[in-house]
Amino acid sequence: MADTMQFDLVSPERSLASLQASAVLIPGAEGDMTVMPDHAPVITTLRPGVLRVEGPEGTREFVVNSGFAEIRADSASVLAERAIPVDEVTREHLDEMVAEARAKYEEAQLAQGEQPNLVDEAAKLLADMEALGDRINLGSGMAPG
């Protein structure tokens, strides 16, 4: 078994990481998953959360809000709609992400008769975004709507 694998994290704005990793904790839509070298191939969607990369050079953490992860035995690639190193996240970033999630929830409520499952998905997105603020010690900063 190899000790490390290639890890890449890319958002539309920039490439955030390209490094060797011994483990990557991914906030998957179906739950958190830890990816290590020789992992079985899988593709998963992301939910809002903290993505943690452990490697020979230490641990790095990133806030992600959605996207995809492709895992292979020798690599893991994450394509995130939005990704920010945890130490760069500001109250403004978090408030903007929560406001976007809240808007999607309100829009889903209006279309509830047409697609009822959208309300549940949007409510989960909003709850995940608010929990993310607590996870990175910023709190959601938003009053319940």
UniProtKB/TrEMBL annotation:
GO terms for cellular component: endomembrane system; plasma membrane; proton-transporting ATP synthase complex. InterPro entries: ATP_synth_F1_dsu/esu, ATP_synth_F1_dsu/esu_N, ATPsynth_dsu/esu_N. Its main location: membrane. Gene3D superfamilies: F0F1 ATP synthase delta/epsilon subunit, N-terminal (2.60.15.10). Residues 5-83 form the ATP synthase F1 complex delta/epsilon subunit N-terminal domain. Keywords: ATP synthesis, Cell membrane, CF(1), Hydrogen ion transport, Ion transport, Membrane, Transport. It comes from the Bacteria. GO terms for molecular function: ATP binding; proton-transporting ATP synthase activity, rotational mechanism. It is a peripheral membrane protein. It is found in: Cell membrane; Endomembrane system. F-type ATPases have 2 components, CF(1) - the catalytic core - and CF(0) - the membrane proton channel. CF(1) has five subunits: alpha(3), beta(3), gamma(1), delta(1), epsilon(1). CF(0) has three main subunits: a, b and c. NCBIfam families: ATP_synt_epsi, PRK13443.1. Produces ATP from ADP in the presence of a proton gradient across the membrane. PANTHER family: ATP SYNTHASE DELTA/EPSILON CHAIN, ATP SYNTHASE EPSILON CHAIN, CHLOROPLASTIC. Belongs to the ATPase epsilon chain family. This is ATP synthase epsilon chain. It comes from Jhaorihella thermophila. The gene is atpC.
